[in-house]
Amino acid sequence: MTTSPPAPKLPVSLAANPKLSSWVNFIGEGGVAISPGKVEIGQGIVTALAQIAADELDVQISRIEMIRASTAMSPNEGVTSGSLSIQQSGRALRHACAEVRQRFLTAASERLGVEVSLLDVDDGTISGPGNVRTSYWELAGEVSLDHDATAGAAARSIAKRSVAGHSVHRVDIPDKVFARPRFIHDCPLPDLLHGRVLRPDISGAELIALDETAASAVPGLVAIVRDGGFSGVVADSEAAAEAALKALRKGATWSTGESLPDEDDLAGFLKSQPVETTVVETRTAAMTRKHAQTLRRQYTRPYIAHASIAPSCAMARWDGDGVHVWTHSQGVYLLRADLAIVLKMPADNIVGEHMEGAGCYGHNAADDVALDAVLLAKAAGGRPVRVQWSRHDEMSHAPFGAAMAIEIEADLDADNEIVGWRHAIWSNGHAARPGRAAQPALLAATEIANPYPRMISTNPPAANGGGGDRNSVPLYDLPAWTITSHRLLTMPVRTSALRTLGAQGNVFAIESLLDEIAVLRGEEPIAFRLRHLGDERAKDVIRAAARRAAWKPKKQAGVGHGVGFARYKNTGAYCAAIAEIEGTDDIRVKRLTLAVDVGEAINPDGVINQIEGGAIQATSWVLKERVRFDRTRITSTSWTDYPILTFSEVPAVDVEIIQRPEIEPVGAGEAAHGPVTAAIANAVYDCLGVRMRDLPITRDRIIAAAELAS
Amino acid sequence: MPTIQFQLNGTATAVETDPDQPLLDVLRGRLVVTGPHFGCGAGECGACHVMVGDRAITSCDMPMWSVADKDVVTVEGLGTAERPHPLQRAFISEQAMQCGYCVPGILISAAALLKRNPFPTEAEVRAALDRNLCRCGSHNRMVRAVLRAAAEMAAS
Ligand code: FES
Ligand code: FES
Questions:
Q1: Chains A, B: CB contacts under 8 A, how many?
Q2: Three-state DSSP string of chain B
Q3: For residue B135, which phi and psi values (nearest 5 degrees)?
Q4: For chain A, what percent of residues have pLDDT higher than 90?
Q5: Which of A297, A364, A505, A671 could form a disulfide with A404 if both were Cys (CB 3.0 to 4.6 A apart)?
Q6: What is the H or E stretch that residue A675 is in?
Q7: Chain B residues with CB inside 8 Å of A176's CB?
């Protein structure tokens, strides 16, 4: 019996939002409106998507207007995260545009009396033999795009792509250098009021009593809002709102809060909590080689702040029983779903419209501040209210990336070859995003009257790359392993998605231990890795980075080199990093050399930009970053207490892209963090002979480790 | 409330204000000049930098009285799409940002540096930008852009 091949499937995002007109429309005398559901978070996605659309439609990229996502009209593509935008939105757009082009060619063929196969499109003009011509815009009246996409449309061949695969300039950059308002922070609505929310310093404290007398007297005050433990002010200027908040704070009485863990014993805390345990993967092999010894190592990383340069901001305006929210949330539909729960109203009465914020690197306070604005705007008599968090709010109340303790036991045979491997993770979940549960994830929802409990973070399923367990399964060919993830069921420090979720910690642990074993064997660490890898793309990035860094430079005193590698989520971008550091106890990362393979790099310079950015941010995490707290409150609430890498401390970063136009593209924004973290730690060993297993790698810790070793 | 006069991007400007109010509030609020950004309000991130003379200063903690009769330049005053400052051109050529929220403050620090020192070394550029934070890791591109602008200005 023969079976016909399965019908080609629509890309996921297009299957969920099949109507072509929700993605593509021809406007005016030569414009194209492209409406993705993904949003710009500083990663250049809008440009890469415009490139894809320009190619498939065959129009100049300058004709394309990218529409900001809004629940009023955009396709619902969930959240912009996980380095999936190119995969999801890019594929959907490529397909939708291919089909749109096809429909127009069919219509042109009818109008011109020329077979489709003889027609050609050039910058939106459709022409055929005998100099007959028409255009998308001429035909727009007769070709309806209010049709569902069909699975058949074929994208153009790689050879025909003239925009994708090239480093076109990003479409948002001119606005940003000429200070044309683009950020939500810079776009005041007419008649705008300003709101501020009162929050406790003490972690988990509740508002018991509030004396509003002093705040009521502040000039410019419009309203004081109180809803259970949620309280805030609305005023006619930011300065008045700040002054009123200050006065209100003096009148607040708080309950004692919940105690926080000991910041100097994170592993002890993480390992002592109630957990949900999952075996991520286990692999057994017929044991041919004999187990001679076991190396047992523990690695930790602290809580890490998103720490966007801009504090989170939102605007909201009520109109009767509906509300419009302007937000830099990564997922306008998901935010809307949570707002609907909190407000107990139909989602259809809420419009969430995206406006750009500063780079967010994951689930920060963008969604929280949106609910703040909605609640305060209730008291504004139909005027819009803008709420902007303070730096202090941002560094203490926004969710953090979760702390992790990772323990690996490696069984070695008499030749120190790996015969068994057990990797266990203790960590809070790495995601408590809005819009995914029956319970809202928004901060103010835990403060209002009849509050919702704080959502305990969970981990995305393995099929989506996992959370705490992300990148915990080695890509290396080891004969046997068991990977176990322990997710905490308590959450005294609020955590949610931060760039790479658990991948940074897991890659740090795996690559550190592999390095240690290579040294134990007296084997060159790159050769050791290559010997354990079957995947040619993996080997290629490692070899490319090694070549580019002239691996391994001659040993010099006070200088060290280290390598790290991972394929993000084990399904995404391949990345190898080599770090060069110098120093004695105060180390400096001098240079990072990276090679990366994202499949088809739609905008190669954009990919390089993201890898550079990821590498530098990872260096900052590794050398400096750690959310600080005492037993009652978060204490790292300013840039002084939460320092990040400065211009003088930033290493040189050199990136090579392995371009593979025939392979579907994947995102680059999270590929570098794990490899760079491991490369720096391994370089510290190469330089100083101490293994640093706790992040951040600071001067004090290096000195302590050196003392312990001597 | 007293009226404070100053030059803003070359235009005589007068605002009636509490003299202790920070310059950034007046710029972003009353004057709707939104190039200078709020980042921390504590002089720690440089997002709010404006130029006074040949110095970049943090406008978030600069009281209005201190700018009386001074020449204040914000990123809006550096150049426009039609007449860009070499730094603005260079930031586009080098695609020197990710989110770009820090960029107005960095352009101002760089412009002030080039006024003081038209031929800076890379280390001098980095030192001049050390009070500007960038969370996206676009530092090296920005340094390249500043050096490119300096070279272009020297050649013209
Ligand atoms: S906002 Fe002025 S220095 Fe940060
Ligand atoms: S480019 Fe985003 S903070 Fe600098």
A1: 158
A2: CCEEEEEECCEEEEEECCCCCEHHHHHHHHCCCCCCCCCCCCCCCCCCEEEECCEEEEHHHCEHHHHCCCEEECHHHHCCCCCCCHHHHHHHHCCCCCCCCCHHHHHHHHHHHHHHCCCCCHHHHHHHHCCCCCCCCCHHHHHHHHHHHHHHHHHC
A3: -90, -20
A4: 89
A5: A505
A6: helix A673-688
A7: 97, 100, 103
Query: Do the domains A12-176 and A404-430+466-709 sit in the same CATH topology, yes or no?
Result: yes
Token pair for B23: 């310059």
Q: Are A429 and A457 in contact (CB under 8 A)?
A: yes
Suggest the residue from B15, B108, B126, B136 to mutate for an interface test with chain A (most A CBs closer than 10 A).
B136
Cα–Cα distance, A215 to A257 (Å, whole number): 24
Q: What is the mean pLDDT of residues B6-16?
A: 97
The residue to mutate among B25, B44, B135, having the most atoms of ligand 1 within 8 angstroms of its beta carbon, is: B44
Is the predicted pLDDT of residue A156 greater than 90, yes or no? no
Interface check for A642 against chain B (CB to CB < 8 A): the answer is no
pLDDT > 50? residue A2: no
Residue B106 burial class via C-beta count within 10 angstroms: exposed 0-12, middle 13-18, buried 19 and up:
buried
Q: Does residue B33's CB lie within 6 angstroms of at least one atom of ligand 1?
A: no
Pairing of strands B55-58, A132-135: unpaired
As a whole number of angstroms, the distance between CA A44 and CA A41 comes to 8
Residues B95, B66 within the same domain: no
Per the structure, how many domains does chain B have? Answer: 2
Do both B41 and B93 map to the same domain? no
For chain A, which residues make up each domain, given as ranges?
Answer: 12-176, 404-430+466-709
Rounded Cα distance, A303 and A398, in Å: 12
Can you read off the two tokens belonging to residue A272? 């002592």
**Pairing relationship of beta strands B55-58 and A652-657 according to DSSP bridges:** unpaired
Q: Which of B43, B77, B111 is the last residue of a domain?
A: B77
Q: Is any atom of ligand 1 closer than 6 Å to the C-beta of B38? A: yes
Give me ligand 2 centre to Cα A610, in Å. 12
Query: CATH number for the domain including B55?
Result: 3.10.20.30
> Are B73 and B9 within one domain?
yes
Q: State the Cα–Cα distance between residues A417 and A704, nearest whole angstrom.
A: 30
Q: Are residues B150 and B104 part of one domain?
A: yes
Whether residues B138 and B121 fall in one domain:
yes
Ligand 1 atom nearest residue B44's Cα: 3
Please give the pLDDT value at position A6: 53
Same domain flag for B61 and B125: no
Q: Are residues B83 and B115 in the same domain?
A: yes
Q: Which residue has the tokens 């001659």?
A: A554
Tell me which chain A residues have a C-beta less than 8 angstroms from the C-beta of B147.
none
- One DSSP character per residue, A125-141 reads EEEETTTEEEEHHHHTT
Which residues of chain B make contact with A191, given a CB cutoff of 8 A? none
B130 contacts A616? CB cut-off 8 A? no
Record the tokens describing residue B36, joined without a space.
């200078």
Domain A12-176 class in CATH = alpha beta
* Cis check: omega of the bond before A552, within 30 degrees of 0: yes
Which structural domain range is residue B145 located in? 79-155
Tens of pLDDT along A460-513?
A: 999 999 999 999 999 999 999 999 999 999 999 999 999 999 999 999 999 999
Q: pLDDT at residue A410 above 50? A: yes
Q: Which among B77, B101, B134 is the end of a domain?
A: B77
At what angle are helices A91-112 and A45-57 packed, to 10 degrees? Answer: 30
**Mean pLDDT lowest among A584-588, A618-622, A630-634, B64-68:** A584-588
By Cβ distance, the residue of B34, B41, B45 closest to A309 is: B45
The yes/no answer on whether domain A404-430+466-709 falls in CATH 3.30.365.10 is yes
Q: What is the rounded CA–CA span in Å between residue B143 and residue A353?
A: 35
Q: Are A655 and A553 in contact (CB under 8 A)?
A: no
